[in-house]
C-alpha cells in the first residue's frame, strides 16, 4: 500500500477537485492520498463527496485554524 501526498493549500475550486481527481486516478486498492487543503468548501464538501462517489473512504481532520488534512483511501 502506497501513500501519496498532495498539497493544495492556496488553491480554490475547481482546481482543488481537479488536482484530487488527477492524483487519485493512479491509486490502487488500499493506497492512500493525503491532501492538505485550506479551502473550506473543498475540504468539507467537494472532496468528501468525490471520494464517496468514486468508492473511496474519506477522513477529514482539521489540523489548524483554516487547514484540513483529508485522507482518501481506495477500497
Mean pLDDT: 97
Unreliable spans = none
How many β-strands, per DSSP?
4
Number of helices: 2
Helicity, as a percent range: 25-40%
Placed side by side, the strands forming the largest sheet appear as: 1-2-4-3
Largest sheet: 4 strands, mixed
In terms of structural class, how would the helical and strand content be classed? alpha+beta
Rg estimate, integer Å:
11 Å
Distance between the first and last residues' Cα:
11 Å
Shape: globular
Order of helices and strands: EHEHEE
Proportion of strand residues: 35-45%
Describe this structure in words.
A hairpin with a 2-residue loop joins β3 and β4 (67-74). The mean pLDDT is 97. The chain starts with a strand and ends with a strand. A four-stranded mixed β-sheet has the order 1-2-4-3, with helices on one face. The protein contains two helices and four strands, in the order βαβαββ. Helix content is 32%, strand content 37%. With 75 residues, the protein is α+β, with helices and mostly antiparallel strands. α1 (15-24) runs parallel beside α2.
Features:
alpha+beta; four-stranded mixed sheet; 4 strands
Tell me briefly what this model is.
With 75 residues, this protein is α+β, with helices and mostly antiparallel strands. The protein has helices spanning 15-24, 40-53, and strands at 3-7, 32-37, 56-64, 67-74.
Write the layout of secondary structure elements.
Blueprint: E1 3-7, H1 15-24, E2 32-37, H2 40-53, E3 56-64, E4 67-74
Parallel strand pairs: 1-2
Antiparallel strand pairs: 2-4, 3-4
